[in-house]
Amino acid sequence: MPYVEVGSPTETFRHWGFGGRQRCSGVGDDGGGFGENLRFYFLFFALCLLPCRSFAEASHSAEAAHYLSKAIAAYDAEDYGAAKTELALALEREPNFAEAYILKGLLLNHDGQADEARAAFKHAVDLNPRLPEKMREHLEQQAHEVEQNLTEEDFSHFHLQFHGADQRAEAWEAVKYLDDAYNYLGSQFGIFPPEKITVIIFSTEEFWDAWNAPMWLGGFFDKRDGKVRVRIDNPPGGNDEMQRRLRHEFTHAFIHQLYPNDLPMWFQEGVAQYYAYANPSDSFWKDTRLEELRKTTQGAPWMDMAKIQDIIAKKNAPPGYIYLAYLESEALALYVAKEHGESWVPSLLEHLRSGSNFEDAFKQAVGVTPAAAMEQLRQSWE
Ligand SMILES: [Zn+2]
């Protein structure tokens, strides 16, 4: 099964208008249950309904999707009037378009209509179905058809596939970031991927058409064919977000080439985010990012390893929990690097490659078990 990413939580967070300085207050604050706190509700449901979308039945028409993406662009540009007009057009074409109700909720909230906003979010969640396995197979088949007849170009470490001459510039741009990631991870691990990694470049629309992917999904790595698929556009986070997107997916491909066996989900996703954000020129980047994650997840229910594994692998939980599982995984990878040294990932990989199982390799590299590290993180956040 391909991993479906949440892209960059922070950028997505900003994308939906709850960025940076604004703090997500915890659900515990008002004594209400999970989802009672409005902002918390926004954060998780606005962000997390979407990743499930690619696993959901393709019920929206391309036209409705087109209007919704225009509405979101208008919302981003704070042109709320235009956002409402485009949104109405999307809902007219597709009355059961779950994502459209998220934006509706955001717009209602902007107008101060908190109850109506809450109802719109609830409706979005109600509309979001779970994916039947058959539907996913169908979508994937459809996607692979779109991937035929691509232009191909070989670079020293990557094999790129894209749609004709008009995407050549984007492909070259992507290779720049990919080469950076290649060199950075290669030097951290003291080893380079033995084989060229294939990266397929999509525009937003192609990506949407091919994978029925949520509009902000950045890309994913498919273990089964070892290829990275990534959407090249102008993400709200700009070039930084583009770079993180490529680094995240590259990390999956890199680790998979070094160690093709199964690894725990928290490790795969946490480490991909870790290297996506790594910034060797800022010696405080780990503290800054960890603090950001602490604030974002404050008040949210804590998950243990088994729960994270289950949620990321099966995507069968409410959307908010899926998002939370990614955030917690990233926090753990960061925390371990902060407390036990940055080389824990390369060292763990080395132990794995010489035959240890994950639990032992982690203990050899870090000194404690993953569960103990998780517990230390939880306590440090209390
Ligand atoms: Zn990932």
Structure at a glance:
The protein is an alpha/beta fold. The protein has helices spanning 9-15, 38-53, 62-76, 80-93, 98-110, 114-127, 133-146, 168-189, 204-211, 238-258, 265-277, 285-297, 305-314, 319-340, 344-353, 358-366, 370-380, and strands spanning 151-154, 158-162, 197-202, 219-222, 227-231.
Give the SSE layout.
Blueprint: H1 9-15, H2 38-53, H3 62-76, H4 80-93, H5 98-110, H6 114-127, H7 133-146, E1 151-154, E2 158-162, H8 168-189, E3 197-202, H9 204-211, E4 219-222, E5 227-231, H10 238-258, H11 265-277, H12 285-297, H13 305-314, H14 319-340, H15 344-353, H16 358-366, H17 370-380
Parallel strand pairs: 2-3, 3-5
Antiparallel strand pairs: 1-2, 4-5
Helix pairs in contact: 2-5, 2-6, 2-14, 3-4, 3-5, 4-5, 5-6, 7-9, 8-10, 10-11, 11-14, 12-14, 13-14, 15-16
The structure holds zinc ion (ZN).
Describe this structure in words.
With 382 residues, the protein is an alpha/beta fold. The chain has two domains: 125 residues, Serine Threonine Protein Phosphatase 5, Tetratricopeptide repeat, CATH 1.25.40.10; 246 residues, Neutral Protease Domain 2 (Neutral Protease, domain 2). The protein is built from 17 helices and five strands. Strand 4 and strand 5 form a beta hairpin. Helix 2 runs parallel beside helix 6. The longest helix is centred in the middle third of the chain and has 22 residues. The two termini are 35 Å apart. The structure holds zinc ion.
